[in-house]
Amino acid sequence: MSPDGRDCPVVVLISGRGSNMRALIEDSRAVDSPYRIAAVVSDRASAAGLAVARELGVDAEALPPPAGMDRSGYESLLEKAIARRRPALIALAGFMRILSAPFVEAFSGRVLNVHPSLLPRHPGLHTHRRALAAGDAEHGATVHFVTPELDAGPAVIQARLRIDAQDDEERLAGRVLGLEHRIYPLAVRWFCSGRLALREGRAFLDGHPLTAPVQFDAELSAAAR
Known about the structure:
Layout: E1 9-14, H1 19-28, E2 36-42, H2 48-55, E3 60-62, H3 71-83, E4 89-92, H4 101-106, E5 111-115, H5 127-133, E6 138-145, E7 155-162, H6 169-192, E8 196-199, E9 202-205, E10 208-209, E11 214-215, H7 218-223
Helix pairs in contact: 1-6
């Protein structure tokens, strides 16, 4: 148990600026938070989020892949860096490496990701560009459990917005990012308070299987913690 009494350590993996990481760190310091951020690890030494984490007093480690090391070797290094922090949960926050099945299975049921689309629509990259190109009326973000298949793990919670005439790729990305900052801390709270779990390939909330992701609204943020 940590010195502040919170016994759900979370390791956050980043590759860039770490805005979702910051949202998680800030939420973890709320009086009623059930979790703490044990460490931030990045596969890029240049990731701006590392400096942010350190400024906020969080252990931050740059762990870029050594030259010539293959994927398996790097994931072994990453697994060891995570394991020594003994996390209850791993939160992917803009971590841009595709994780192998053996790595995911080593932490099965303990890895969450936030994805900038309404999964299963638009998995992978460039989601905002693709939503605009497809003429979608709605767009949003999804928190899901990570499984070996890319962006296909059981969805936990979604937040959505209507695409309007003023939206270009950059504007839409900013609007969706604000939703990510709301739903990701909420899902982590659910997991760390024992409400959320992955069982036999399905997400369970409060002991009941989710047949569809929870749909976020402003009242949920305050009332459903």
